[in-house]
Design goal:
alpha/beta; 22 helices
């Protein structure tokens, strides 16, 4: 058998033709169906990838535009070919041509305006030419039913006007005959008719001489003659002549339109080829949707993996099959009872491979297919009476042909290997055939009932057993494939369930050879060991997955907590910033009111304003304290004995995290980086945080450093207004606090004075002031307020 014949035989056995019939039903035009008929599997990997990409784009388009309209395309190639040879097209044929060209234009426009990236479909759409002038010419000349419009040409319009007028004149003459009492008595019916294109009256046979005219016809009985009155002969002649002119004008119009079609023959053919391809591609996508199929991953390494595969020709509730080949083993031997699903498994694998090579998607949860080699199958009963071949001979003849063309990457499917002859010899031949196929790099799936082949799978490298599961309680197969486990024919179990006497079963067991019993026992023990190993592996894998899930969950929770903490801190910073900004603005406004009140002579008004200020400052103090308490972290532990540069610390007094920049000096002061700010902080105000080295900000930003060495311990406010003095004192006290100064002096002039009194009231409500007292400096007794900071 030639390789091509063997290939077609395999496609027939795997029923690829039925899948292609379903694909043809998804086409909307004969042009697309023709491409389906030409479709064959290919081992050209690049071609397969292109075909699969086409199907993928079609699926995407159907998801985006479920009601995509591709109707209206007809096979007009014979019409265009005839027009190209100078032939005349009828009105209906020209309407078909125009309709197809309009449909192609509509499909092109719809594809090109889809927003998604569809390079293949849009490339084919770009090859569709638009024939607007031709469509317009045909549309103006012809109605949708193919009849010529009156206004197709001025001459045709004129001729039809004259014909219509002449017909009206003839009808008036006929109506006069019908109304004439003298003529009516000679007529069979009070109506007129047309015979041979001429208007006639139905005259009774016996009165033929009473109505002069030309006889054009008679009824079947001969009782009625259809006579054209002499008065109408000339009118009918004129009507006939005008009708002939009309027909010549119609033929001239059709000829001109046919010539236009003929001149565009090549461009129309190219457009039809593009429309055929578009219809074919969209049909593949539609079939994928109907099958609930997925795009397979492709390889050329001889590896197959199908998860949840459903044979596309099975109806009803289908048990999905999961199998793999070419990874851990190259030959899979499936055993088990008849009707258990062995042959369906073979066909599913082979059919999926052919479908993938055709560019079709596969009805499965997941599929990886090797497409670099051909598929050969020996399935079914090949017995032939005409060729005098037994079942065994027919199978062996087919296998011989397969062995002649096998090469690396070939997928070989063998159903009931070695059947039809002596079991011992059949099993030996089967093992030898498998050895030959393996030596030539083929991948094989075979079904059998022979125990020797089960043992062969256990003892031969890269050969694996599989079984179709059978429920011994219900005596029905479950159709599940179990890889790694050999199957049993279950003949004894089935017979026992069906009621075969126990003594017959016992006698049957005695006829089994001891070697056969030992082989069966060995296979069962090996299967049990393998099953136990698989269960242990599955349990270990389950524990590993659980541990991995716990790790991922913990990591996720940690990340979420870290993110949430960052968000809380950022929110606190924003709220604190807003609060400080708002408080400063309100303090300034309050100070203006205080200053204004102090300038007034009304003592009660002064007291009232000061009380309001104290009340408001108390509200702000509590608000700030509440906010600080809300976001203040817990500062656990005792102050450190010492710190080193680079260590992370929490500054209790500032409720901020910082980084140590220097060792403590003799006074126990430490220089700490707090964001962009550098400050001297007492060692007792620090708490160590977990180690996290953070480089101090040296470059790429700005920093503010406040140090007692650059900050004087007194501030001279003499000569300033109350508002100016309070503003400068506020800024000075902030800097002094951050620099670690505990006692500072505010110089405000002789005695207490108005400025001193205002400062004292201001300091009474300042959140950083612990206490203050009035004093004098120098011989002149300059007024000084000594302030102790918190």
């Amino acid at each position: 058998m030639e390789e091509k014949d063997l290939f077609f035989k395999t496609m027939e056995k795997l029923e690829l033709g039925k899948i292609l019939d379903q694909l043809k039903e998804c086409c909307s035009s004969p042009l697309g169906q023709e491409l389906v008929e030409e479709l064959e599997p290919t081992t050209d990997v690049e071609e397969v990838k292109l075909r699969q990409a086409e199907t993928g784009e079609a699926c995407l388009l159907w998801r985006l535009v479920p009601d995509f309209n591709r109707a209206g395309v007809r096979d007009i190639r014979p019409l265009v070919e005839r027009a190209g040879r100078g032939g005349l097209l009828t009105g209906e044929e020209l309407v078909q041509v125009a309709g197809t060209l309009a449909a192609g234009r509509r499909i092109k426009k719809a594809l090109l305006k889809v927003g998604e990236d569809l390079p293949i479909l849009k490339s084919w759409a770009g090859r569709v030419r638009e024939f607007l002038q031709l469509e317009e010419r045909i549309g103006k000349a012809l109605r949708e039913d193919g009849e010529i419009r009156d206004e197709a040409t001025p001459r045709l319009w004129s001729l039809r006007q004259r014909i219509s007028a002449l017909q009206e004149k003839i009808k008036q003459k006929l109506e006069e005959y019908l109304r004439s009492p003298e003529i009516q008595k000679y007529l069979q019916d009070s109506l007129y008719t047309i015979r041979a294109g001429r208007y006639c009256l139905p005259v009774k046979q016996e009165y033929r001489h009473h109505v002069p005219g030309l006889v054009h016809d008679q009824s079947a009985s001969g009782a009625t003659l259809f006579i054209e009155p002499l008065a109408l002969v000339e009118l009918n002649n004129e009507l006939k002549r005008l009708g002939a002119e009309e027909q010549r004008e119609i033929e001239a119009i059709l000829y001109d339109l046919s010539q236009l079609v003929g001149r565009a023959k090549e461009e129309i053919f190219r457009t039809l080829r593009a429309l055929a391809k578009i219809d074919f591609i969209l049909a593949k996508g539609l079939l994928s949707q109907r099958m609930d199929a997925v795009a397979p991953s492709l390889n050329t390494g001889g590896r197959w993996k199908i998860v949840g595969g459903r044979h596309p020709l099975l109806k009803g509730k289908v048990v999905p099959v999961t199998l793999w080949l070419g990874e851990d083993f190259d030959i899979l031997i499936i055993t088990g009872p008849n009707t258990g699903g062995k042959t369906v498994t073979l066909k599913t694998l082979g059919l999926f491979t052919l479908m993938a090579q055709c560019g079709l998607h596969l009805p499965a949860q997941e599929a990886s297919i090797s497409v670099g080699g051909p598929v050969f199958a020996d399935i079914g009963d090949e017995q032939s009476i005409e060729q005098s071949l037994s079942t065994f001979s027919a199978h062996m003849s087919h296998i011989v042909s397969i062995l002649s063309y096998v090469n690396p990457g070939t997928l070989v499917l063998l159903d009931e290997l070695g059947a039809g002859t002596d079991p011992t010899e059949g099993a030996a031949l089967g093992m030898a055939i498998l050895d030959y196929l393996a030596s030539h790099g083929a991948k094989v799936v075979a079904t059998t009932h022979y125990s020797e082949l089960k043992a062969y799978a256990y003892t031969t490298p890269r050969v694996e057993n599989a079984a179709v599961e059978f429920d011994s309680e219900t005596l029905k197969p479950t159709f599940r494939l179990l890889i790694g486990t050999p199957g049993e024919s279950n003949a004894f179990i089935i017979s026992q369930r069906l009621g075969l006497p126990e003594e017959v079963l016992e006698r049957a067991r005695t006829y089994l050879s001891e070697e056969r019993v030992q082989v069966s026992q060995m296979i069962r023990e090996l299967a049990q060991d393998k099953q136990a190993s698989r269960e242990a592996l599955l349990e270990a894998e389950s524990l590993r997955r659980q541990a991995e899930e716990i790790r991922k969950k913990a990591e996720k929770e940690w990340q979420e907590a870290r993110k949430k903490a960052g968000e809380v801190l950022e929110r606190a910073r924003r709220e604190a910033h807003d609060l400080v900004r708002r408080t400063k603005l309100e303090v300034r406004e309050m100070m203006k009111q205080v200053e204004k009140a102090l300038a007034e002579e009304d003592y009660k008004n002064k007291v009232k304003v000061l009380d309001q200020a104290r009340t408001q400052l108390g509200v702000w103090d509590r608000e700030i304290a509440d906010k600080a308490a809300e976001y203040r972290p817990q500062a656990d532990g005792e102050p450190p004995a010492t710190v080193s540069p680079g260590e992370r610390v929490w500054i209790v007094s500032l409720n901020q995290e910082g980084q140590v920049l220097s060792h403590p000096n003799s006074q126990g002061d430490v220089l700490v980086q707090v964001g962009p700010l550098k400050a001297n902080v007492k060692l007792g105000e620090l708490r160590l945080l977990p180690a996290k080295k953070v480089e101090p900000q040296q470059q790429g930003g700005w920093s503010v450093r406040v140090d007692v060495r650059s900050l004087k311990p007194e501030l001279d406010l003499r000569g300033l207004t109350v508002e100016e003095a309070c503003h400068q004192a506020d800024k000075y006290l902030d800097d002094a606090y951050l620099a670690g100064l505990k006692v500072v002096s505010l110089i405000h002039g002789k005695g207490t004075g108005a400025l001193g009194a205002a400062l004292h009231r201001y300091l009474s409500f300042h959140p950083l002031v612990k206490s203050f007292r009035f004093g004098h400096a120098g011989e002149g007794g300059t007024g000084v307020t000594i302030v102790e900071l918190k």
